[in-house]
Amino acid sequence: MNGTRRRRGIAIAAAGAGFALVLSACSGGGGGGGGTSTGTAAAADCAPYSQFGSLKGKTISIYAGITTPEDKPYIDSFKPFEQCTGAKVNYQADKNFEQQVLVRAKAGNPPDLAIVPQPGLLAQLVATGKAVEPPQAVSDNVDKFFGPDWKKYGTVDGKFYAAPSGASVKSLVWYSPKTFQDNGWKVPTTLDELKALSDQIASSGKMKPWCAGIESGTATGWPVTDWVEDFMLRLSGPDNYDKWVGHQIPFNDPSVVTAFDGVGGYLKNPQYVNGGYGDVKSIASTAFQIGGFPILQQQCAMHRQASFYAANWKDADKNVTIGPDATSDKNVFAFYLPGQTAQDHPVLGAGEFVLAFRDAPEVKALQTFWSTDTWANLKAKASSADTEGGWISANKGLDASNLVNPIDKLSVDILKDPNTVFRFDGSDQMPAAVGSGAFWKQATAWITGQSTQDTVNKIEAAWPKS
């Protein structure tokens, strides 16, 4: 659940644009927004890199929780930088990254750069005193290529530290386009239409409208928290969502109760769930990875899960394809989980941020490259070639033509929609005792029968007192 969870310019104002252009030239591409090849660099003038001093023989270490096979596109995306600067990028992946990066920072042995998947972890790393603020050009690139919400999530105590990298969209509902077409069901554009569609499917007797799974080992319950966060954002608005995440309102505030009960209208409704698996309580014992699979057997019609769920469908059937095509039962796609009105466009998501721990020219240079649209397009093309997609960014310069996976293209369209109001996964921002503790645990208890009021009261009681 890395999600399952930005580019920087150079310290000299004029260097930001020049840097991006030179990188494009070095990698054999065109302008910064169009993407480039990760192949051998063409002969080019890399003189603008001289402002950083000589980078030949310099090594920059990157530490991340993004492991094989998703690590290869990252490694490939840095090749033009290495070829043009002479620097070496050393990428290290670790499944225990989130625990170990804190250990390393506190011990005084952090990496040069870390790919941090949560704003809460970012704040903890900054609190160690080992993090280094990026050069001004990185901040300028984030202002240029990302919305202000994204910059806020890379900011700690009023200081900007980390540019965004990858992203995921969580406000999605998976479905079978053919099943919808065959039954005359329309993709909803408002929450009222979603409820009416669920009633229509339930009353048809053909299948349950919804299927779900929240079992995830020690992280069991997190898919429910995503549901609740989506409904907090839709029913209470982004400002109240922010207050809830920051504990400016208590976890048992009436607005939170309303959000839980809104979700309960779907997940705790025996007429709606759990298609293909059993009753409501079966949701708690169904692995989240397989939660949507009954869509392929027409045992359920819809499954709310993030864009990264696309990677799971091949485990259900190797012949599954993803896209809007309605001619095959083996095709799945997703639609945007609507807001209260067709004009409302709240989006829940997650992402990654690039945090530095060493103040050195080569580290600043790589940060700058990483915060450009040039890198975003290199990464998208590498992901398309190496892993058939599964990676997106909120970078406004990302060219959708570099994305091969239809769900990636849909997700980028959602992120780029001018009406989109983006909010980061709430549990990822809350203290660990709540976000990855009481919220997950009590949400699971809620699914298996605990009342809403008892649930929110217990989560509120777990919030740290200081």
From TrEMBL:
Keyword match Signal: yes
Position of the signal peptide: 1-25
PROSITE patterns hit by this protein: PROKAR_LIPOPROTEIN
Keywords: Signal, Transport
Classification via InterPro entries: Bact_solute-bd_prot1
Family: Belongs to the bacterial solute-binding protein 1 family.
Protein name per Swiss-Prot or TrEMBL: ABC transporter substrate-binding protein
Gene source species: Cellulomonas alba
